[in-house]
Amino acid sequence: MTTQEEWETPFNARGFEFDLENVLFPLPDNVHKITADKVFISSLTNQVDLRNFELSGDKKKESKAYYSAKLNALRIGNVDLNQAFMTSRLLVDEIIMEDPFLR
Fold it and tell me: Cα separation of 90 and 75, whole Å?
């Protein structure tokens, strides 16, 4: 299934798509987390679509700043998910927020 060659794309495939539910992603600062009811990720269409997105901070942990945001929908477009998968760096070109509530 694999060869000695280095993969140029994740899974050595043309692309990938994931449908996820009840996502919890702790951020590297160990204070904030992202949650979403549904997440669709597609390297074929270069998009990430999150439903009932929430960014929240744990105020029990020490931090210089606490952020929170709630969105019915958050769409991130024109992103190179293959590069993000291979390097852990996501460069975002387009963000579309639906009905944002920011504090």
Answer: 14
